[in-house]
Amino acid sequence: MTDTENVILDFEKTIIEFEEKIEHLKSLTDNKDLDISKEIKKLEKHLNKQLEQVYRHLSPWQKAQIARHPARPHCLDYIKALISDFTLLCGDRCFGEDAAIVGGIGIFEDIPVVVIGQEKGKDLDSRIKYNFGMAKPEGYRKAQRLMDMAEKFKLPVLTFVDTAGAYPGIDAEARGQAEAIASSIEKCLRIKTPIIATVIGEGGSGGAIAIAVADKVLMLEHSIYSVISPEGCASILWRSADKTKEATEALHLTAQDLKKLGIIDEIVPEPMGGAHREPEKAFENLRQALKTNLQTLITVSYDKLKKQRTEKFMKIGSQFVQATDIKK
């Protein structure tokens, strides 16, 4: 078992117990004197019932925990599963390379595409390598370079969002972190080629928005997307980490909340128990969603796409300005 597989969430303890019992019984099936198939089926029935009971009634904080689960598939997992002939492209042609943002070209369902995503890593070494998915300015400038290339060669862009936020270090600020994020958002709005963003885990703050302004914004069922982390919100509003759960509720950061608010366009179903339990099913669900949306977008003229994209986000902004004015 890897360190990611050892993580057990509080509300999953009963589920894990059932799974361990089933695995133990299956290990005994080589004994021909024992017929335990009925007992295994009975336990599997109880397991499925428990999974459904838990995962049909998740709180926002529980969804946040699933979105951050270290065993959850990350950007490189989705690229490996969905993109063939992927070629990694590095560097921003200005300062250097930022591994936190992975980018390159490949083939998705026989369509050449540019892929950009945030990678968190799976173990200590890879997390350090990818800086836990927190990009620096050179990462966002690399994303802009790849979007320019996509527009030049008329290639659709697929982005995979999974970050707690942009890197907040002094060196990142010194190199223009805020400007890099703002320019990346502007680039997403201006490019004349289809762009689809998918929040696959945690979409945190401007670090996520920088590559999530798209013609279609998708979210996996148990992912989260917010302007600030629950912990950060709790520290600012309540000045206490004890209020993290309340902050999670207040932020309306679940896919279901954001779909109702019109912030995202589509929720991609996850296998029962979350993407970390059956990654292959999660990959296939996202494949179908991306394929359907991409086939629709590539039939629209580039000028019309750009116009519709801009109007879409301007409308979202005006709606929230109006809502704020009403509350005042």
| CATH architecture assignment name of the largest domain | Alpha-Beta Complex
How many separate domains? 2
**Mean pLDDT over all positions:** 89
What's the number of helices? 14
Report the β-strand fraction as a percent range.
5-15%
Uncertain residue segments: none
The major sheet is characterized as: 8 strands, mixed
CATH evolutionary superfamily of the largest domain? 2-enoyl-CoA Hydratase, Chain A, domain 1
The helix content is: 40-55%
User: Which geometry do the CA atoms define?
Assistant: globular
Count of individual beta strands: 8
Here the CATH topology of the largest domain equals 2-enoyl-CoA Hydratase, Chain A, domain 1
Task: Tell me the radius of gyration.
Answer: 21 Å
How far apart lie the N and C ends? 53 Å
Coarse structural class = alpha/beta
H/E element order: HHHHEEEHHEHHEHEEHHHEHH
What is the CATH first-level class name of the largest domain?
Alpha Beta
Kindly describe this structure.
The chain is of the alpha/beta class and 328 residues long. It folds into two domains: 48 residues; 264 residues, 2-enoyl-CoA Hydratase, Chain A, domain 1, CATH 3.90.226. 50% of the residues lie in helices and 15% in strands. It contains 14 helices and eight strands. Strands 1, 2, 3, 4, 5, 6, 7 and 8 form an eight-stranded mixed β-sheet that branches. The longest helix has 26 residues. The relative contact order is 0.11. The model has no long low-confidence stretch (mean pLDDT 89).
